[in-house]
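Hello Y.,

Per our agreement to keep a running log of every chain we model this quarter, I'm adding this entry. I've kept the format consistent with earlier entries: sequence first, then predicted structure.
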Amino acid sequence: MSHLLTKFGARDRAQLVIVAYETGLVTPGIADPDPRAPDADPRPPGRAVS
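Predicted structure for the entry above:
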């Protein structure tokens, strides 16, 4: 973590998140559901239901 902070000139993890968004490393949106969650859809994404 300290290497990343130094490399990007950030003072904390929050600033690293900002850098990630500004550089396009991550994009805002809805996160994928946790497949281990009890209410997760067991069907693979993109498959038609017959």
